[in-house]
Specification:
The protein has 561 residues and is α/β, with parallel strands linked by helices. Helices cover 43% and strands 13% of the residues. A six-stranded parallel beta sheet has the order 3-2-1-4-5-6, with helices on both faces. Strands 9-8-7-10-11-12 form a six-stranded parallel beta sheet, with helices on both faces.
Length: 561
C-alpha cells in the first residue's frame, strides 16, 4: 500500500476557446473555476492532468495570467494516471468520476482520491455517469461536490433508486461510498463592485432609453422557456406591478435566445401579456454591454422553474452588483438567497413524486428529446405570480428596504461566494478525503488473479477455450530461427510488432535470446529471475510472440522424476 499523499489536487484540464465557440453557462462556470483554482490554490505545484503538452502550455498561460509562475505547473498525461499519487487527488470539473476508478483499481485504490463537481443533474448522460458511482469501484475517499443541498438531494435520490433496482436484480444490498460535500460555486466579487456606482446607473439607463424614474427589473441569462426559466411569470408579474404603480415599469432580459423561433415566440407572448409594462431584450453579444447591464436595474429577478438549473450564479452576481433579488424558492436559490434578507424567495409548486413516470418513460424510449423532457417539467411547475408581484411592489415603494437588502447581498456575496473563500473550501474537502484514504475501508479490493475491470478481462482468460494449448512457465524453449537477420527482416514489418508495449524491452529480449542460446531447452521458469521477476506474464507474452515469428520453438516440459 502506498503512503497517503495530498498536495491539493490535479485538475483535469481541457482547453476551450470561449471566443470562437458558442458559450454556455456550464463552460463559463468551468473556466471560472479553473482560473480561481490557479489564483487561490495554496498548493506549491499546480498539477495539470491533460491529453498532451500543447494543452499543458495553455494551462501554464492561464496560470501566469492568474499570477502564478509557469515553473510551478506540473504536467501529468492522461496515460500516466499512476502519477496522480503526487497531488493525491484528481479534480474532474463534472460528476463523471466513476470511470477513473477502474484505472486506479489496476494500480492502488488508496493512491489518490477522485473529486467531481455536479452541475445540472437532469440529462440522461449525467444521470448515468452519477449512477455508475454505485457499482463502479469508487471509495469513501471520493466525492462529488454539490453546489447546493437540492443537487445533493437529487443525487442521493438517484442513487437510492439505482440501489433498489440492483438489490431487486441481484438479491444483494449495495451502498455508494462516495461523499457529497456541499460547496457553492464562486465568483470574483471584485469585478462586480463597479456595478454599484450610481453614475454608471445614469449612463446605462440613458444608453438603454430607460426612464430615470422607471422601476427596472433585470433577468440575466439564457432566455429559454424549456431549459432555463419560463418567461410567463416574469411578464405577468411585471404587468401586474405596472398596474399597481404610477411610475413606469420595465422588465429587461439580458441574454440570448437559443433559436430565432424562440425569439419570435417570446416577443409574441410579451406583446400579448404586457400592455402597460415595458419589456426590453438586450443581447449579451451587444458590444456596448460586454459586462451586462446590472447597474441599470433596481431589482434582479430570476424565476427559475427548470430541473436543469442546479445552483444559479446570476443571483450571486446580482448581489455582488448591489441588487436585491427576487427569485423562486427552487434548487440552489434557496441556499444563496435568504428570504427577507438579501431579497425574497417566492413559492413554487410541482406535481408530487410518482406523478412523472410518464415523462421518464417517454424520455427513456426516445419519444421525447432531452429538451422536451425538461420542458415538460417546467410546463408543470407553477410559480406564485402574486407573491412575485407583492415582493416587487414592496421593493418598488420602499427605497430603504431596497438599500438594506442590497447591502446585505453585497456582504453575503463577498463573505461566502467569492472564490477566495470557495477554493479553500474545496481544499478542505480534499484534505478530508486524504484522511479517509488513510483510515477508511477499501471497497472491492482487487484480487491478484482478477482483472481490474471485470468487463475488460484478461483476454487469455476470457478466451481460454479458443487455443489448443496454453504456454506455461514449465515449458522449455530453444532457438528455431536460422539467423537473427531472418527475424529482423520480419520485425521490420510493422504488422509483426505493432504492440511492443506488452512485450519485454529490446534489451531484455536480447538477454532472453542470449540465455536461450547458451542453454537450449531451458525452462521459462528459470528465465524469470533475470528477466521478469516482477512480471512473469510479460515474459510469457514475449515468448509466445517469438514462437509466432518462428524465432523460438516450444518444447514439452521434462517429465517429472
Amino acid at each position: 500500500m502506498n503512503a497517503v499523499k495530498t498536495d491539493g489536487a490535479a485538475i483535469y484540464f481541457v482547453a476551450r476557446d470561449l471566443e470562437s465557440e458558442r458559450v454556455i453557462g456550464l463552460d463559463v462556470a468551468v473556466e471560472r473555476l479553473v482560473d480561481a483554482y490557479l489564483r487561490y490554490a495554496r498548493q506549491d505545484r499546480l498539477f495539470c492532468y491533460a491529453k498532451d503538452k500543447n494543452v499543458f502550455e495553455q494551462f501554464k498561460q492561464r496560470a501566469v495570467a492568474q499570477g502564478r509562475a509557469a515553473e510551478d505547473c506540473a504536467f501529468i498525461a492522461l496515460t500516466e494516471s499512476e502519477r496522480l499519487i503526487e497531488p493525491g487527488c484528481l479534480l474532474q470539473p463534472d460528476p463523471n468520476i466513476a470511470p477513473y476508478a477502474w484505472m486506479r483499481r489496476a494500480q492502488d485504490q488508496r493512491a489518490y482520491s477522485l473529486c467531481g463537481i455536479s452541475h445540472t443533474m437532469s440529462s440522461a448522460a449525467v444521470m448515468d455517469a452519477v449512477a455508475n458511482c454505485v457499482h463502479y469501484p469508487t471509495q469513501e475517499w471520493d466525492a462529488i461536490i454539490c453546489p447546493s443541498r437540492a443537487i445533493a438531494g437529487a443525487i442521493q435520490a438517484l442513487w437510492d433508486e439505482w440501489r433498489a433496482y440492483l438489490a431487486d436484480r441481484t438479491g444483494g444490498r449495495m451502498a455508494c461510498p462516495v461523499q457529497l460535500p456541499i460547496v457553492p460555486l464562486g465568483i470574483d466579487t471584485g469585478s462586480f463592485a463597479k456595478n454599484r456606482d450610481g453614475g454608471r446607473r445614469t449612463g446605462l439607463r440613458k444608453e438603454l432609453g430607460l426612464a430615470d424614474d422607471a422601476f427596472v427589473m433585470l433577468f440575466h441569462g439564457r432566455i429559454s422557456f424549456y431549459s432555463k426559466a419560463h418567461p410567463l411569470p416574469f411578464l405577468q408579474a411585471a404587468e401586474r406591478l405596472a398596474e399597481r404603480l404610477s411610475t413606469p415599469v420595465s422588465m429587461v432580459f439580458y441574454g440570448y435566445f437559443d433559436t430565432e423561433r424562440f425569439e419570435t415566440e417570446f416577443n409574441a407572448l410579451a406583446a400579448e401579456v404586457c400592455r402597460k409594462a415595458e419589456v426590453r431584450v438586450v443581447a449579451n453579444s451587444d458590444p456596448r454591454f460586454p459586462n451586462g447591464v446590472w447597474s441599470a436595474a433596481d431589482v434582479f429577478m430570476s424565476l427559475a422553474d427548470n430541473i436543469q438549473e442546479s445552483f444559479g450564479l446570476a443571483p450571486i452576481e446580482a448581489m455582488a452588483s448591489g441588487l436585491p433579488v427576487v427569485a423562486t424558492d427552487w434548487d440552489g436559490y434557496r441556499d444563496t438567497v435568504t428570504n427577507g434578507v438579501e431579497g425574497f424567495l417566492v413559492p413554487t409548486l410541482t406535481p408530487p413524486p410518482g406523478a412523472g413516470d410518464a415523462n421518464a418513460t417517454r424520455y427513456l424510449s426516445g419519444e421525447d428529446s432531452y429538451g422536451t423532457f425538461i420542458a415538460g417539467g417546467s410546463q408543470t411547475t407553477a410559480v406564485d405570480v402574486e407573491a412575485v408581484t407583492d415582493a416587487l411592489h414592496e421593493l418598488a415603494v420602499n427605497t430603504d428596504l431596497r438599500h438594506r437588502m442590497a447591502e446585505a447581498g453585497v456582504q453575503r456575496a463577498e463573505s461566502i461566494y467569492d472564490w477566495r473563500h470557495v477554493i479553500p473550501a474545496y481544499e478542505s474537502v480534499w484534505e478530508e478525503l486524504a484522511g479517509r484514504r488513510a483510515t477508511g475501508t477499501e471497497s472491492a479490493a482487487k484480487s491478484q488473479h482478477r482483472a481490474a475491470h471485470p468487463l475488460r478481462p484478461d483476454p487469455y482468460r476470457m478466451f481460454a477455450g479458443f487455443p489448443t494449448e496454453h504456454l506455461s512457465l514449465q515449458d522449455r524453449i530453444e532457438i528455431a530461427a536460422k539467423s537473427v537477420e531472418a527475424i529482423n527482416q520480419l520485425i521490420r514489418h510493422r504488422m509483426n510488432m505493432f504492440t511492443p508495449d506488452i512485450l519485454l524491452s529490446a534489451d531484455d529480449i536480447a538477454k532472453l535470446v542470449n540465455a536461450v542460446g547458451r542453454s537450449p531447452g531451458v525452462a521459462l521458469a528459470e528465465l524469470v529471475p533475470g528477466l521478469a521477476e516482477d512480471d512473469p506474464a510479460r515474459l510469457l507474452r514475449t515468448v509466445a510472440w517469438m514462437v509466432k515469428l518462428g524465432f523460438l520453438r516450444r518444447l514439452a516440459p521434462l517429465p517429472e522424476r
